Amino acid sequence: MPNQNPTDDRPLAGKLALVTGASRGIGAATAVALAKAGAHVVLTARDVKALEKVEDQIHADGGTSTIAPLDLTESDSVSRLAAAVSSRWDALDFLVISAAYLPQLTPVTQIDPKQFNQAMTINVLATQALLAGFDAMLKRAEAARVIGLTSSVGEKPRAYWAAYGSTKAAFENILESYGQEVEKLSGIRVAIVDPGATRTAMRARAYPGEDPATVKPPEEVAARIATLCEDGFSAGHRERVD
């Protein structure tokens, strides 16, 4: 449960956050950072054991969390998650959409339909489902914040990246459209964050010859996301973490 201790002076004490893709990489680091700041964090991803490791770290740091395993490729997974979360809590203060799927890098003419479909499902369809499923809870929060993690290829097409980049372009469109729809009707604000070059498993797949030590750790991106949640941001916020 969100921390209700009136003596807790952590900036996000009493707030509820939900982070997708929380089992590893930027999602896991963000969940840890938000919990350190006092939020109760709902951790979602497919890998239960990996989620448990993240939760162990959160608890070791004195934070609180709840594991909610789900597979975003299952058609009703998000609606079931939303029903479960809303039955326990009234409002959702922070929704961080970090989960993403990277198809094989390939020319447009050789895109694998199965991988492309999975990318569309996780990167696009699940995003719309999350916004629809948690809209009511976000509107009940005093000043809810939605943060979506994107990639530069969503805005600037790049050879061999079309299968991923096109889904990120759609991802951004959905988030920005939602932000415009709710900004005058509620306290919800939406931000799109490009983490830039970051030491993650996804980047290692995309750049197998790269020395991981030459790019920043996911904790740096997580720290920036936590700051955005603590300080707030205006409608249509967009930034790159370099």
Secondary-structure topology with pairs:
Layout: E1 16-20, H1 25-36, E2 40-44, H2 48-60, E3 64-67, H3 77-88, E4 94-97, H4 113-140, E5 145-149, H5 152-155, H6 162-182, E6 189-194, H7 201-206, H8 218-231, E7 237-240
Parallel strand pairs: 1-2, 1-4, 2-3, 4-5, 5-6, 6-7
Helix pairs in contact: 1-2, 1-8, 3-4, 4-6
Extract low-pLDDT stretches: none
- Strand fraction equals 5-15%
- Straight-line distance between termini: 34 Å
Helical residues, percent: 40-55%
Give me the Rg, rounded.
17 Å
Shape: globular
Secondary structure category: alpha/beta
Structure summary, number of beta strands: 7
Q: With helices defined by DSSP (H or I, 4 residues minimum), what is the helix count?
A: 8
Descriptive account of the structure:
- With 242 residues, the protein is α/β, with parallel strands linked by helices.
- The chain has eight helices and seven strands, in the order E-H-E-H-E-H-E-H-E-H-H-E-H-H-E.
- Strand 4, helix 4 and strand 5 form a beta-alpha-beta unit.
- Helix 1 runs parallel beside helix 2, helix 1 crosses helix 8 and helix 3 packs parallel to helix 4.
- It is globular.
- It starts with 15 loop residues before the first strand and ends with a strand.
Task: Please tag this protein with its features.
single chain, 242 residues, alpha/beta, Rossmann fold, 7-stranded parallel β-sheet, 8 helices, 7 strands, 45% helix, globular
Question: Concise description?
Answer:
This protein has a single domain (16-240), classed as NAD(P)-binding Rossmann-like Domain (Rossmann fold).
